[in-house]
Specification:
Blueprint (H helix, E strand, L loop, with lengths): L3 E4 L2 E4 L4 E7 L8 E7 L6 E6 L6 E3 L7 E6 L4 E6 L8 E8 L5 H4 L7 E2 L3 E6 L1
Parallel strand pairs: 2-11
Antiparallel strand pairs: 1-3, 3-8, 4-5, 4-9, 5-6, 7-8, 9-10, 9-11
């Protein structure tokens, strides 16, 4: 069982930056693929980024590639999402997710593959 708690959301102007954190409980954090997803009002949840258990592989949605960076610190049981050059269309509730499936780009972007989810943190980007 893994519990996830996101933090770091807030209100920022377009062009600004935020860093989201996802703190995980449990001793098996290092075995999990970590993903970030987001959901804007009236829209379906969408994939943002994912990272393999040992940080050797990452995968990004085209909409955030070059602006967002996912990372993790297994010693701290924490995953991060550094968001730069934010745009109003990045406004959403951001969720972190975890699961122990074998890494692949197609699988890590599928929200149905993740068993564990955080409660979400709101990110609002003003124009």
């Amino acid at each position: 069982q893994v519990q996830l708690v996101e933090s770091g959301g807030g209100l920022v102007q377009a062009g600004g930056s935020l860093r989201l954190s996802c703190a995980a409980s449990g001793r098996t954090f290092s075995r999990y693929v970590m993903g970030w997803f987001r959901q804007a009002p009236g829209k379906e949840r969408e994939f943002v980024a994912a990272i393999s258990w040992n940080s050797t592989s990452t995968y990004y949605a085209d909409s955030v590639k070059g602006r967002f960076t996912i990372s993790r610190d297994n010693a701290k049981n924490t995953a991060y999402l550094q968001m730069d050059s934010l745009k109003p269309e990045d406004t959403a509730v951001y969720y972190c997710a975890a699961d122990s499936f074998p890494w692949s780009g197609s699988v890590c972007s599928d929200s149905g593959e993740y068993d564990y989810w955080g409660q979400g943190t709101q990110v609002t980007v003003s124009s």
